[in-house]
Design brief:
The chain is mainly beta and 143 residues long. The protein starts with 10 loop residues before the first helix and ends in a 14-residue tail after the last strand. The protein has helices at residues 11-17, 29-35; strands at residues 21-22, 42-46, 51-57, 66-71, 74-79, 101-107, 111-119, 122-129. The strands form 2 sheets. It has a 4-stranded mixed sheet, with no helix packed on it. The chain contains 2 helices and 8 strands, in the order αβαβββββββ. The protein has a single domain, classed as Sandwich (Immunoglobulin-like), CATH 2.60.40. It is 10% helix and 35% strand.
Length: 143
Amino acid sequence: MATMQLKAVTPADLAQISRALVGFDTIFNQRLQQMNGNYPPHNIVKYSDKEYTIEVAVAGFKKEEITVEVDQDQLIVKGIQAESDTSTKEYLHRGLASRDFEQTWTLAEYMEVKDAEVKDGMLIVSIERIVPDALQPRQIVIK
């Protein structure tokens, strides 16, 4: 009888399965988000089967320095800070990161990005699942 070797699944293995799944309900979704150490920190919030938001911490970025783009099934959020004159500043402690970033999330089928806003240092991207009427469940009247 052959013995089966078990291999532990590492955070890197799970990250390769999917960087982030928005609109898919899987047991990995929350765990992947906890293990994904990418900058900047973010939350994926599910309000209902149709309404989601992605909240990205963008403290230190101006609204003009952030772009939100949808390319097919990819949501891409970029932050590129304008050059600032740091020659007049001397940081005694620098606890806030100030590096550029790019985050990409894969959107599930029928997910549509509705809008994005910056509020209180957070970029909030609203996403809605819009399933065509022809694919909605319907009840058949029995004659």
